[in-house]
Amino acid sequence: LIDADVHPHVRGGLATLAEFMPSRARARSASDASMHEAELGETDPEVAIRDLLDAHDVAAAVLLPLEPVNAFTDPLTAAIHISALNRYFVETWLPADPRFHLAPLINPLDVPGAVAEVRRYASTPRVVGVLMPLPNVLMGDGRFYPIYRAAQAHGLSVVVHPTGAEGIYYGAPVLAGGPPSSGIERHVDLPQVAQASITSLIMQGVFERFTSLRVVFAGFGCAWLFPLLWRMDMDWRRLRREVPWVRCLPTDYVRDHVRVTLQPDDLPDVAAHRGAALELMKAEQTLLYSSDYPRWYGSDPRAKLAGMPGPLVDRVRGRNAIETFGRRLTIRRAPASSAR
Amino acid sequence: MGPSKIIDAGIIDADVHPYVRGGWRTLSSYMPREARSQFDGHAAAEAATDGERPAASWRPGMRWNHPNRYTNPNPGVKVGVLRPDATPPSGDLPGTDPAFVVTDLLDRDEVDAAILLPVASAGGGHVESIRSFTDPAVGAAYVSAVNEYFIETWLPVDPRFGYALQLLTRDPDAAVAEIRRHQGRRGVVACFLPLLNILMGERYYYPIYAAAEECELPIIIHPFGAEGNFLGGPLLAGGVPATYLERHIDLAQVGQANVASMVFQGVFERFPRLRLVLAEFGFTWIAPLMWRLDRDWRWVRNEVPAFLKMRPSEYIVEKVRLTTQPLEEPEHVEHLRAVMEMVHADRTILFSSDYPHWDNDNPHTVLRQLPAGLRRRIYRENALETFGPRLRTLVDRTGVARG
Predict the structure, then answer these.
(1) Rounded to the nearest 10 degrees, how much is the dihedral formed by the CA atoms of B247, B248, B254, B260?
(2) Cα distance from B329 to chain A (closest Cα, Å)?
(3) Model-level pTM?
(4) pLDDT of amino acid B401
């Protein structure tokens, strides 16, 4: 089993993180530290090893260190936090277990900084991608191309995950139709960001320009993907003259370049509908297993795997992730694992 | 009347677009004198371009532009979204001649009732999209003139025409007054609400919902060009799309967000007889939306404590309707059948042609491969249930009149 979406946290919060910052930046961040005192179990890699890797027989887990830098108004603060967070997880989590992999955080609005961060960790073992919290700029925008170029050159996937700032803070992606009233509406609306980003990537020709780039949409769920494929294909057939650089069906680009993760699981309960939705979203290529650990969504994602047809289970639980992250993914069995 | 080719009864078309013959010059005659000067610029631009829409609409840099204007530069096409083959014998713009729509759509396709939805009907995109957002007085003059024009010049032409009153969303009091002014007219079957960047679950809209519910007029929403385009109109998620193609794909988000908002804010509990119709937003996305709404509601329903008395998806099946056009094209027919089951099409889906728009669906070629019972629901019965006695009157009278 390969888990494409696991969230590590900093033990000791900002007070710890400040130790990973340049000394001049510490005073400023230390003043915020009092807001972040809660000691969480998931801040300890040993807890994640026990509760996630060992308990669920996970052969590889991709750590996504989430920080809402897409709502940071000050790019310097963002750069300091990003640099400290990445150092922290590279130095404290990756050595803790060979099954841990990491997608270091970048700030896409600081393109030179993001490219430098990509290069900094490009040769670090078990770094499999970069985590790109989205600003309110669609992903097909040309200003991101240096980031895509660097990621592609080093065989790193670009991973996108909601940070919690979407639909709330200026600067982060807006949601359609107006600000949602409640958190539950906001959560329902989050896939819009993935839909718009996938549409933009394909129609702006990003995958024609970066032919081996992979983009993983983690934490958005997956069921929304098939209506998007249908709508993109339909509109492209009718309006393709507007985007002559898009040379094949949008669905084909998705199959080759775009991945989505299982959690938060939004597949239907009715088995026939679940099977049809998985088939229509091309889950055999596009879907990666994920737990979104340590978040709790009230369902065990492994139960969802159990309901999938055999060949598909094999793809979703590991093979798709191996193909996506490539040689950067090192698979090691947990010592106690059974031969499942 | 003879049986329709697609079902054994007349079909009901939930989305047909009428246009004002003569454009701004005509429309201004339906306005109070003091409001007319507001539209002089539009009329002058129209005259200068020999009946074409104001030249400013066609600046290539504007995403408002429809690419077919360039890809299919038929000299007969004066508005980019219109079908050249729907041009009436007079040579006027498609959709401006009700008598021709009777023969070209109603008679030919055996339509028992067609709901006229005035979207940018006087080349009014800019008014609907910009001025009515920023200047309610201008918007009020425009909306009232549009409604009077179509009620007076189209509804008497054929008893099968139904009409969706355009509302000035910017001014809920004016919208309520417009509903009350026209609700007694035969043929008025719904309200068309062009959206602001305020989600439909918000209290802003409740006076409009109260009036619409009392008058048994379903609320229709329909993309009208402002989405992701003009400030004040609904934003699209994640940034500004670069092309018309992307913007069109993204429009489904507006439907998704507003359905989620109405369900979770308890609008359908507060206004239990209210119906929402999403025209031209697509419909396949409603299936994953229902799954996600139900799942999230199960996880964190304490956020919307007293509002919901049943599962979110049940409100959608009971209260929300979606039209077929634009119909996506699955690889296999069985996929379409599977999706129709997922979306509860036997309750939720209404046939629409979108006549005379460029991408409209011919009712005799789409959806033909669905089972006969489901076709009958989609092509007729769902609409009769949604629009209730007001629509049934049109259909019944049609039967008597055409006996």
Answers:
(1) -120
(2) 6
(3) 0.91
(4) 47
